[in-house]
Write a structure and sequence with these properties.
By secondary structure, the chain is an alpha/beta fold. The chain folds into 2 domains: 10-128, Response regulator (Rossmann fold, 3-Layer(aba) Sandwich), CATH 3.40.50; 138-212, Arc Repressor Mutant, subunit A. Helices cover 46% and strands 13% of the residues. A 5-stranded parallel β-sheet has the order 2-1-3-4-5, with helices on both faces. Mean pLDDT is 83; it is low at 2-6.
Length: 217
């Protein structure tokens, strides 16, 4: 691969450095670079000593790895993360749990695609599917706009997102699809919003939002 002075190292986060990981072995050959294995016990030390380290995580093993320590510092800005071997689309909350997410690859992606993406990430670029980028942009746009709600009403970012959807006349189903959450979760958020705003229904909540919240540009 083409190397530049910004080249960093990808470390594969696993539960056993001596185990055999075929996909990682194949990737090493494709990019012609070593991918050292690192276990969770070494992660806190890595946080202190090796900033800008890239962590690669096999999503199929993630729950097992996560259970080994409670405070896995994936959300720390010192770590960039690559998620591989995904079998399904992640929710926005799941994406955010991986902190500085730089790359995401599905199980059906072949080794050439994985190698090309990792080479780009090593050299400082991102490699994320369009739908994932859309999810994150939707989330952060609303985070930035959080300050537009009156300070006297303690609304969460998610609740503000739902209020904006109500302003546009979205149904619960549409809100669930736009925010990548279940309809049950939408209903739960709505009940909390109604209580905080002291309103009885979505029409009153939408009216409150139109009066107090600045439209997105």
């Amino acid at each position: 691969m083409a190397k530049n002075q910004y080249t960093r190292t990808i470390y594969f986060l696993c539960d056993d450095v001596n185990a055999h990981y075929p996909i990682v072995d194949q990737l090493e050959k494709q990019i012609d670079l070593p991918i050292p294995r690192i276990v969770t016990d070494d992660l806190m030390l890595a946080l202190q000593q090796h900033k800008h380290r890239i962590l690669m995580i096999d999503h199929q093993d993630y729950l097992k790895i996560k259970s080994q320590i409670r405070d896995l510092p994936l959300a720390d800005k010192a770590f960039e993360t690559i998620i591989i071997n995904l079998t399904h689309r992640l929710t926005t909350d799941e994406l955010l749990s991986f902190g500085h997410l730089k790359g995401l690859f599905y199980q059906e992606d072949d080794i050439e695609v994985l190698a090309k993406g990792c080479e780009a990430i090593i050299n400082g670029e991102n490699w994320l599917p369009r739908k994932v980028v859309a999810q994150l942009l939707f989330h952060y746009r609303n985070v930035v706009d959080t300050h537009t709600a009156p300070a006297t009403v303690d609304l969460t970012t998610r609740e503000l997102q739902i209020l904006r959807c109500l302003m546009h006349g979205s149904s619960n189903t549409q809100i669930a699809e736009d925010m990548f959450i279940s309809e049950f979760t939408v209903k739960s958020h709505l009940q909390k919003v109604f209580k905080k705003l002291c309103v009885k229904n979505r029409v009153q909540a939408a009216a409150w939002a139109k009066q107090h919240m600045r439209p997105l540009s």
